[in-house]
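>> Question from a student workshop board

For tomorrow's exercise we were told to take the sequence and the ligand below, predict the bound structure, and bring the output to class. My setup keeps failing. Could a helper post the expected result so I can at least see what it should look like? The ligand is glutamine.
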Amino acid sequence: MTSSATIGVFALQGDVREHVRMLGELGVGVRTVRRPSELDGCQGLVIPGGESTTMAKLARTFELFDPIRQRIEDGMPVFGTCAGMIMLADRILGGAEGQETFGGLDVTVRRNAFGRQVDSFEKELVVAGIDDPVHAVFIRAPWVEEVGAGVEVLAEAADHPVAVRQGHLLATSFHPEVEGDGRLHRLFLDLVHG
Ligand code: GLN
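>> Workshop helper replied:
Here is what the output should look like for this input. Compare the format with yours to find the bug.
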């Protein structure tokens, strides 16, 4: 698949390289985003897995917080994986004191939801809109505890949503970028191409 779109990858923290590689393989233009000017000209944004508390702080420090929030409000498609899902959530449980998110996704997300015993695990996951199961890698992952009316649940694990879509926003608790399976990214590019 080729496309003329340029997708930004939030690059202040997290597994940026894996997303850049995946998007490159899918034939879109990719740009790492560390400053507000780098958001200009992006038709979509990926927020990687990593550590959401650090992401929020760095986004404030580098003055990316408000520009990203504004672009989300303006309708830019965004795909968040794991910590990226947390960054998109309107409400979080188990957050650090005062932890901020970009928001936009009408969900309540619980950080580190799967507990210590199953800190990290892998699972074949049925995802709505994707033909065969996806091999999903969960690493200290969040799950979705509550969804608003406009949110579509695409996949569940442990009886909780782990992949959701609301309009131009897509989020997964797992890391499609680390398993070399481009199908979730393709679903995201469908949002970018309208
Ligand atoms: N537990 C991390 C957080 O709260 C997310 C983990 C991940 O992105 N793999 O930000």
